[in-house]
Amino acid sequence: MSDRMLPEEFADCEPFAEKWCIATEAARYAERLNSTVAEMQVFYDAMYPRVRDAMAHLDKFSLHELPEQELNLLRLVYSLIMVSLPVEVWQQPKVIDSGTAYFDRYLEPTP
User: Which residues are CB-contacts of 102 (< 8 A; sequence separation ≥ 6)?
Assistant: First the structure.
């Protein structure tokens, strides 16, 4: 039995799995806010080139019956999406000029 969180084909992304394989959108957002731009940039630089491979791999499975490693890979992709605007555009974890505004979502997309 493997201690890997991700499928073998994504062993290069494993160093990011513990921090970024996050189950909920709210928790991913909180992690983004608690991360530095430098931390997000390192994750982004490693994961962005692999996202098409990840999606092609995930397309081999039923979305609602993903094995644990594939579910973690999907969560890693979700985290990449969460950090993409802060890395590509804002250069900060928070939305620019948002002040203390926030938005709570009560329904979570699945899986």
Answer: none
Count the neighbouring beta carbons within 10 Å of the beta carbon of residue 110. Answer: 6
Q: Which of 28, 1, 6, 30 is nearest to 16 (CA)?
A: 6
Q: What percent of the chain has pLDDT over 70?
A: 79
Confidence at residue 63, expressed as pLDDT on a 0 to 100 scale? 85
pLDDT digits 0-9 by tens, 54-65:
999 999 988 888
Which two structure tokens, joined as six digits, stand for 59? Answer: 């397309």
Tokens of 4: 């890997």
**Dihedral pair phi/psi, residue 109, rounded to 5°:** -60, 150
Assess contact for 54 and 20: CB atoms under 8 A. Answer: no
